Structure formats: structure tokens, C-alpha cells
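Morning F.,

Quick status update on the modeling queue. The single chain you submitted on Monday has been processed. Sequence for confirmation:
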Amino acid sequence: MNNLVLFIVLPVAGVVLGWTIRWLYARFQLSASEQKAERLRQDAIREAEAQKKEILLNAKDELIRERNQQERENRERRAEVQRYEARVSHKEEALDQRAALYDKQDKEYVEKLAALQKREAVVQAQEEEYRRELERISGLTVQEAKELIIRNLENDARHDAQALLNKVEQESQLNAEKKARDILVTTIQRIATETTSDITVATVSLPSDEMKGRIIGREGRNIRALETLTGVDIIIDDTPEAVVISCFDPVRKEIAKESLERLISDGRIHPARIEEIVQKVTREVQNRIYEEGEKALFDLGIHNMPTEGVRALGRLYFRTSYGQNVLVHSKEVAEIAGLLAAELGANRELAKRAAILHDIGKGAENDSDQNHAEVGAEIARKMGEAPLVVNAIGAHHNDIEPSSLEAIIVQIADAISAARPGARKETVDNYVNRLENLEKIAEGFNGVEKAYAIQAGRELRILVNNEKIPDGDVKELARKIAKQIENDLRYPGRIKLTMIRETRIVEYAR
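C-alpha cells below.
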């Protein structure tokens, strides 16, 4: 029985004890959660208070900054307003002073105007008195004096007019040649040309004087090889960093010059290399000779020229005569001859062909006792040119009688190209002397500061001293200079005189 009781009581007691323990644990957990919740609530309250304080502090700082900024802006505006007020006040004072000055000047101007009017009346009275006195002394009235001056001016004008009439009369005597002159002028104006210098030596620059020894070579073998292969004389003297090539054949001179320049640039100078370079340059120069001749014929529109004729023309590219490049001169003569033939109704193509070939004898490679016209005619005959072309070439220096109008045209064109101003060196001295004489005549007059001959002597610009020559006397001075030039000089056409008188004042603002 007791065991049964224990069996029943013990489980019940265990259940009650377990429930009691669980209840106590639950109460303990609930109490801990409540405490934690309370702590969290307190922490949240404290954090909210801290954030509130921080927000209030930030707002207070921002408010202080805004207020300081506003105070600074207010101070700056007050300072600006004060400066503006000071400027306005200063300008008002300046305006008041200027107004007072203007009033004073206006008063002075009125006083001066009155004094000037009074003085003018006195001057007019004195002038009238002087005029009556002059009339009494001269015995002439004002009207009579004017008429006398006018008569003198009329006499001068008649004199100038008579001189002009005489000049026109002389020009009218040349009307028989007017057509020919018009043709020549039209022809000359339609072409332009260049001039070159006539030289028989060429200079080659050296990088240093040491190169002279390398050009000479051991026992002179290099320079001998170069002179033998090119047929020129190479002169090595005391001239620093330069050697001179001398030869009367311009083609050989050109070959020697280019060969020596290439050898100097290459640096390898010995007989074998010299021979190689000379052969190469010779081929290139021969090709250039053909190209220049072909180019000249193409520019003139001349065709069907044999190869030997093209080469004979190309050799003229390296030759000069009296300062003119012979090929350029031949092209110019051909252009002039073509224009003259067109104007005169002659055979234009025949005239151009004879003109371009008229100096080919100057480029002949063979030595002959004949002059270049005869040599050129012989070359043209061998090339199969027409007899009229051969005759024109041989007759362009009157060595034989011209047999056609085209031959005479070639003579005229050759003379025009050779004799025009600036074509040959002989005319330069006369040209310069004429310009110098023009300037000297003008500068010899009192009141002329400087004279400049321009437009190839067709215009003379004269600077006049404005203190010595008044405006009214400039025209008379120009007439005197023009008459002096007419009396002392001989010149074609007319010369324009431009008188320049100016007052130039220079001042500096500091």
C-alpha cells in the first residue's frame, strides 16, 4: 500500500515541482525582458535627447553664420554706398569747377572776339590806306594790276602751248612709221624675259680648307684625273673654303662643277670614284640638255624637230652672251618673231622656227673659223630644214642677203630682244646714269629735300620742304624742274613729276 502511495505521490510531486520550476523560470525571463526593455527605452530617450541637443546646436550655429554673413554683406554695401557717394561728390565738385572755368573762358572769348573785331577794323583801314598808296606810287588801279598779271600768265601759257605744238608737230612727222611702231610696241608688251650674268668660271664651296688637299690627292693625281675627264681648269688658291672651275665650254664647266660637288658630299675622292661620278653626271647633263631643248620647243608649239636640233637647242641653256641666257634669248626672239609675223601677215610658224634656231651655232661642239650664224645655217642644212629657215639663220647678222620677209622679221626680233633696256649688261650703266641725273637735277633746286626716280625713270617723286616752299609755289617749281629736265636730258616718252609737300608733326603723350 505504501509503495502504491509512493508510486502515485512521487510523480505528482515531480510534476508539481517541474511546473513550479518552469513558472519560476518564466517569471525570471519576464523580469529580465522587462528590465531589458526598460534599458532600451531609457537608451532611446537619452539618444533622442542627445540628437535634439545636437540639432539645436547645429541650428544655432547656422543661425549665427547666417547672421554674420548678413552683417558682412551689410557692411560691404554700406562701404560701397559710401564710396559711390564720395565719387558722386567728387564729380559734382569737378563739374562745378569746369562750369566755372567754362564761364571764365566764355567771358575771355567774348572779350578777345571784341578785341579781334576792333583789330580787324584797324587792319582793314590800314590795308585800304596801303592800297591807295600803292595805286598812287604805281599809277595802276587794282583792276589794271590784275589785268597785267593775267597778261603775263597768258604769255607763259602761250609759250608752253607753242612748245607743245612744236612737239606735236615733230611727232606728226613720224606718222609714216606709226604702223610699224604700233606693231613693235604691241609685240614687246606681250612678252617678258629674264636676264642672267655672263660668266666663264664657277665657284664650289668647301666644308673646310682640309678638303683642298683631298681634292688635289697624292702627288696631284685626283685633280689631274678630274681635269682630264672634264676638260676644265681647277684653280685652288688662297681663297678660303672655295675652289674655282674655269672653262669656256659651259657644258664641261657644269659637268665639272656638279661632279666636284658630289665628290665633296660623298667624301670618297680617288681616281676610280672620280671617273664614275663624271660619267654619271655627264649622262645626266646630256639628258638635261635634251629636256631643256624639248621644253623650249614645247613652250613655243614647234614640232618635228630632229634629235640633233633638240640637243643643239638644249646646249644653249648653259651658254650666255652679253649677260643674256642664249636659250631664253632664242625663245624670246621666237615669240617676238611669231607676233610680228602675225601682225604683218607673214608665215608665223616659219618665222618662229627660224627664230628659235637662229643662234644654234653658239652651242656647236666643233671648233670652226666661221661665225655662229654661218655655223648655225650649216647645222640647220644638215638637219634638213627648209631653205628659207637656213637663209634666215645665216642672214640674221646680215652675213648673207635675206631672201624672205620671215628672215627680216628674225633680224628685227633679234635686235629687239638684244637691245631692249636691261637685256644686256652694257645698257645698265647708261640706265643708272640717267636715273642719277634725273635725281640730281631735281635736288639742285632750292627747297627740294630729296628726289627719287621710280618706274624705270618714267616717274620722279620730289619731296619739297614745306617751310621753304609754300603751296602756291609748288606748281611753279614743278614747271621749272620739268623744263630743266627737257633741256638737259634725252629720254624716250615722257617723265611724270610728282611733287610731295607735307607738314608732319610728332608729339608724344606720356
